[in-house]
Amino acid sequence: MTMKIYIDGTAFSAEENQSIMDAVKSTGLEIPNLCSYNGHDNGVCRLCMVEVGKPPRMVPSCSTKITENMEIKTRSETLDDYRKGLITVIMKDHPQHSGSDGEKCKLETYAEEFNVEVERPHPAMDVTIDSSHPGILYDPAKCILCRKCVIACDFDQVNEVISISDRGQNSRIAFDLDVPMGDSKCVSCGACVDSCPTGALIEKGWEPADRTAVTICPYCAVGCSVEYGIKDNKIIWARGYNESDVNHGKLCVKGKFGFEFEMSRYRLTVPLVRKRPGERGPLNGRSIDEVFRPVSWDEAIDIMAREILNARSVHGRQSIGGIACDRATNEDVFAFQKFMRAAVGTDNVDQSATLCHAPSASMLSYATGAGASTNSIKDVRVARTILMAGSNVDRAHPVLYSEIKKAAKKGVNLIIVDPRKVELSRLANRHLLLRPGTDSVLFSAMARYILDNELADRDFISSRTEGFDAFRDSLAPFTLEFASRVTGIPENEIAEVARTYATQTPSVIFWTLGITEHENGSDNVSSLINLALITGNVGKPGTGLSPIRGQNNVQGGADMGAVAGSLPGYQPFFDNGVREKFQKSWSSELPEFQGWKSTEMIEAARKGMLKLLYITGENSVRSHPDSEGAVAALKKLDFLAVQDIFMTETAEYADLVLPAASSYEKSGTFTNTERRVQLVNKIFDPPGEAKPDWKIYSELAEKLNFDMKFGSSSDIMEEIASLIPSYAGISHERLMSKGLQWPVKDKNHTGTDLLHTDSFIRGKGRFRIISWREKDPSEIHTYPYSLIIGRQREHYHTSTMTSRSKVISLIEGGGFIEMNPDDMRKENFSTGEEIEIQSKTGRIRGKVKENNDVPSGVLFTTFHYSDLPTNTLTPDTYDPPTKTPAYKDTRVKVTKIR
Amino acid sequence: MYNGHKAEFLEELTSGSNEDRKSKDFISKLAEKHGLRLSEAENIASFYTHSEGKVKVCRGLPCSLKSTGIERELLAKYPDEELEDVSCLGYCDKAPVAWSQGKYYQLGNGGTKELEKQPYGSDFREVKDLKEFLELNGYETLISFLKKNNRDEVLQMVNDLNLRGFGGAGFPVYIKWKAVSASNEQKKFLLVNAHEGEPGTFKDRILMETNPYELLEASLIAALVVGADEIIIALKHEYLQAENTLKSAFEKSMDFFHSSGVDTALPKMRIMRVPGYYITGEESALMEAIEGKRSEPRLRPPYPAEIGLFGKPTLIDNVETLLYFLGRLREYSKDWSKIPGTKSYCLTGDVKNPGAYILPYGSPALDLISKKGGSNLSDLKAILPGGLSGGILTSAEGNVKLEFDSIKAHGAGMGTGSMIAISKDRCMVDVMDSIEEFFERESCGKCMPCRYGTKELSSLFENLKHGEATGKDIENAKRTADVMMKGSICGLGQASARMFLDSLKYFQEELDEHVSGKCPSNVCFQEAR
Q1: Which of A191, A262, A331, B482 pairs as cysteine with A152 (C-beta 3.0–4.6 A)?
Q2: Chain A residues whose beta carbon lies within 8 Å of the beta carbon of residue B442
């Protein structure tokens, strides 16, 4: 419904039920204010008063709703006097900023605008600046207690660290129980800083920017838009971009402070060739110059082309493989697979999903026809039940986490399934602390309970699914009693959670790598999908099956076809019509064999079957399981080319190192976890001679006498749109600031926030029968602990980018093996002590730390730190259908170092 | 729903010792116990300094007028951290007073004297027990209402009566009653605002202590009329005696209700003391405090009748309003509109006989001051008709009738009907300094016009007293007062501004003389001589 209102005499039509301030804002006019925070009531500054009605009456525009035919005056003599008076009295108590940080002060800007004379010099305030946080300063003297930081921290991000302490004239901002910011539970998301109108909370060393630029965050697949301040061609600060429909102005610590890698002096800037071919190994303290020789791009391309031609003629196309980078753009990845398939002639292409969510994409595709999240992040707001499985969303996807916390605080039924206590546990109705790796048993037992108790959606099952009878029969072994024995969760809790999920609908399931990174990862995913299918929790708002993807463009990487045996858009590799379409477009024959997945390529290299590997933006040495095995495989290759922005541990093994542009240095698109294709905007030229990936592929192809026909990244998107039906309507011009969610069927289609509404993409939803195999008890006896490898909030994967940030390194600068206090006592360990961990694959040493959140019998650590190379321990045990490694459940033993 | 248990947290916190209050460890454990984040615990715990162990020294105007400067000496045996200045303890006729562990003390020249059982004054009949109350036809109106259940009729009476709230704002009672009774929500509250806080006001305490049954009956009927299923009588934190009196009266009454077979038809009743400050008497700040949050006024709309206590429709009425309602309901069968009601008034400050008095509603101020207070108008410089919130009148306006419209016509407000008399010997700058310091101390700090404005006005008078203010400072303060009148969220900021503007209206010369370094009353600049 719209209403007619008059703003300063001009008639406007405005949506009903909004505040005067918002209605006025939608006409492009901002009413002066110091405390307004989008979407939240605050109303403390009282600067936003306007006059309404006849005779005019002053009301706060932020908390007064518009009414039909309301006459609103935003300017008048009375209002001018009032605003000037209020700014004057506030300024009386406000220290004048010195130097450039005055630009950050909205109050001073208003003081100038309203011609406020600042009458007396301010006495020095008796306050101490809190500089305890590595990246943020808090100067209480500049604080006007507008409470925006409180809203930002407590209600928008729901981190609940900042509050108003004391009262009246003594009121001030406090962190936790009034401790210094750096000692508080602050997660460094920077929302308080971004909201502060006076610079009382400000980045250390903040300066005004020469210009700002908006692009997509280079980290996780939530896909936040970030506004960067740029000075002297460097990023000097970052803040959440308010116009984004994804993050609505919010960021996490990585987005806020993780941009420094772009200007790092360690960036690769020239192509490098190994001086002594064949001596492949780590630098081991030697300088890059000692081991590598800088070469021109011409020479580098020559070498690479020569090696490809050589391998192809001697060992055949099957001997060449490439791994695409999921932090690169869709355009880069599309160009990569086109280069590999059409110019080199191999289907040995993959991307990092094999190391993370391949089971999700693959099993969703099997069941529904689309290997992607069925719903959108915003569905969190309409769901009545949220099931979070194997997802440490607090650490891995903090901005999405805020949405879930908000929903939980509003009363959604929140169910957590995780072997560890996680931060979210405090907001959950139930946290099922199951034994690692037993997820599929739990979910299958829930399914059986739902069916046995007639809680299923029979109409949905009969009209929308296939294979139900066989599925139902397959559930026979999964009784509550059996599941309770295997998972360690009491029967009544399983039953209660099943009932909630089935009846308190709409219910949405989110999951992450705790589900997929197991030797039965695909079964785990399928057991979740089966639950949604029997309860009809898919295809409706607030329902859904939502794997939260990891890297910023891992969804896009698979969409673009960097998957062996799957052409762009998941089009079947061996379908003649599809092959013809691609062959015609590319004027080239496609390979006749289905290639290897990345873990299989490493395996093939070790066996001498793969001779040339082209790794782009993956630090395989640290991220693949069985690191020593991976190193051995890389050493066995005839030729290893690594393209990256840094000399990673993997690049150190390369014969040829190619310097790539980061996402700040090129244009293109990323596809986030909710299938939203968003525009990546170039902010800088690449450093030195570094180039965008797609350009490198084009030049290589040319040397191999293949014309990629790409003049720009938007050319590539045109080709993508012409070949992938779900991207058909996408072009760079259309994306702008909001992006579009695929499928986008044509140039007029506005995208799809909800998949499978009337029917599944593949027609009927398909059940998948799963089985369960107990672990070998003798292995458990020898290796009594289950090691889970996960994430910290501050770091990202192997920290190639995050470790370059001073602030992040100060916040979180070292890795630990986290252990339950009871186990610590049993093993006679104390926090900080170095211990040895051994699996059947390898052994490492690392410092142990007590953590109550880790249950007895479980260890938790990360793979962020080079001095704690935890994947040395991970065995090359894979989920059979997808070859995804079992990072989440490695059997290990621990030993005291004497 | 995740919410934590703030009310329980606050209750346990304020019943803890001073030592506990200072311990971060204690607070963090308490936070964990009640499901609160540390920041929430800090937010609440730092707002309320209450603990049973504190000694509170009253600094309200009636007490500061009577201060002899020896109060601190009298309390020297207590360590500083146990002493706390508070703004009104509600014993203004015995000023200056202090409070400790539920007991009141008068701090006079004769030393510290415990104020035990109070003589309430001849106007207030003390009803000693239920028997006496029943003999006075107590609870008859309730029982008869339960029989007739004539809700609409009673609502109509409230409307016809043009009854206005005696809590200070004088809001028409019917509008709230109608709104709450029209709500279809299952859960509704009646919140009895007994958080008396306006300096100079103590009549509600006396009314509750002398006849607790009367308030119980009035509340029960009001709740039944609007369909509230729970009554909360929220008392000022220091009103321990009133709490005990009400609780014991309620217990006895329940026995009576039970034996009369009406107990099951009655709403639930909770009688509680609520920690807080002056601002807590503001109805939305009171609800926040009961919910265990910081006692700060809410933004309006929504109004309490829509979203009130714990998010439910809530009727909020002041003690005396409900008693007045019951009084008129009892007269209902007769031709009540011709009988003027009576009202309790408080009189404090520079009068011979300070106290609480019952007069026909709308009696002239003169009657209160001279007939009851035993003083001459001519000895007074100013009268504050409504505590510190009603502005200022000069003694020339002694004929003003003590009712809302008449006082308003004189440019002031009746507020709670608590008059503070200011002697002609006093310096208005000195008095205003105390008043504006009060508002500065009691501003909750939430909205900027009030937080910054009260500070400016307070420092203006502080500076005037010391000859450090200029005429321009006064002009600037006028502009600030205008901002406070227009922009403050609640009445506190407006009251502060109004007092200042009234002091200019009547006593600008006196203020101006201070600018030029003279105090006509020879009160200020004493140190300089």
Answers
A1: A191
A2: 168
